[in-house]
């Protein structure tokens, strides 16, 4: 139900602006969940966020979130920033240094104006792991702790949507993974559209339901995450460590082997670990972990699935990047495979061929709920 509600609260943006001699043109629509805006420094990501928040105003176009129009130049609509109900989480957190964590959170709650936040104070404190930090001042917090407090303050303000500007910048190791897991939990639990800006492809692959690629002030491509990740005309699918994201529904658990069977359409995958309590499991499957054959094979890989080749191209090395559609048709969920050109020729593969794709269960060990 939360995810269905989130679909109705997507971003619909078509705006233009000239700023500092640079022309910006952003045009995209995003569906349910977390939308990641990915691009290099200077691409205009923060400029886009500021215009959605109302900090900067476009010269033309329209912005709508959840069906609510926030800006429409032709219609004479420009909702003031304080009425947009935007939870803006800045890169530096911007906590009040003279207030402890509890008071910073309480400040956010006061901004709710009597509205009930999507999650209560105590539940949010526990979800974000802030209970032990409530009496501490911001200067005593680690970078990851400060980010969690900033996110909590924004949520207690009862926002209609969240904007996250590079929330993982400056974090590394376990601290970064902890914040990624926390953002993923919010994405899955709360019926809020989230727009997250990043220049880090790994962050986007771990978190995004939708991806918007930007460069030089314009949108290069936008769409559902797996469609963008598997499009050979775009850089993400051509990268050496390219991968796709598949969302699978657990349908059974084998305690003897500690393996969960997950379903994607009519395709079943064996995933290590117990995941049957989760409604969906988010699988990140690397192209390098998918091998192809034309006939049924017997080897150590647990996952042998039917697929059809829908696109392929040579890479700069002696490799082929192959786009697969799961199942017998061409409209199934996408999977990537990276095989040698020699193997491609030896198997006499071609676009349109039906193949067997093998994925070792161990390759599915890194996963996130989605």
UniProtKB/TrEMBL annotation:
Residues in ABC transporter domain copies: 1-241
Domain Mop span(s) in chain numbering: 298-368
PROSITE patterns: ABC_TRANSPORTER_1, ABC_TRANSPORTER_2, MOP
Gene Ontology CC entries for this record: membrane
Domain of life of the source: Bacteria
A Pfam short name: TOBE
Gene3D superfamilies xrefs: 2.40.50.100, P-loop containing nucleotide triphosphate hydrolases (3.40.50.300)
GO molecular function term, any single one: ATP hydrolysis activity
Keyword ATP-binding: yes
Keywords of this entry: ATP-binding, Cell inner membrane, Cell membrane, Membrane, Molybdenum, Nucleotide-binding, Translocase, Transport
Protein name: Molybdenum ABC transporter ATP-binding protein
